Amino acid sequence: MAETTNTMYPLLHPITRTRKVGDEVTTETISEVPFRKLKPKDLRCTDGHQGEVAKSIAAIAHMTGLTIKEVDDMDIEDFNNLGPLSQGYSLDGLRTGSDA
């Protein structure tokens, strides 16, 4: 089985992730995200999303481990840098999942 290699992409504008478990609140600053080569499963995760931007957000979240909300709140410069990496080709016209 081939090994998947992640490339770390530095964010120009770090993301602050806040999590609450019980009464404890933790904060983490994310200054870089792992990003791997686009796979069909990354495209399939976009099936339920309407529009190119929503599909890009879903694919970036799936490929980086960020939540959709974290990608949605990401600075536009970082989104623009990661966006093309999540689209090996246009998602419009590509049939995946139950549409195939």
What does this structure look like?
- By secondary structure, the protein is α+β, with helices and mostly antiparallel strands.
- It has helices at residues 40-44, 52-64, 68-72, 76-82, and strands at 6-21, 24-36.
- It has a two-stranded antiparallel sheet with strand order 1-2.
- A hairpin with a 2-residue loop joins strand 1 (6-21) and strand 2 (24-36).
- It is globular.
- The two termini are 26 Å apart.
- Mean pLDDT is 80; it is low at 89-100.
Strand fraction: 25-35%
Number of domains: 1
Tell me the total number of β-strands: 2
Low-confidence stretches: 89-100
Q: Strand-and-helix sequence, N→C?
A: EEHHHH
Number of distinct helices: 4
**General shape:** globular
The helix fraction, in percent, is 25-40%
Oligomer: single chain
Rg on CA atoms, Å = 15 Å
Summarize the biggest pleated sheet.
2 strands, antiparallel
| Estimated structural class | alpha+beta
Q: Quote the average pLDDT.
A: 80
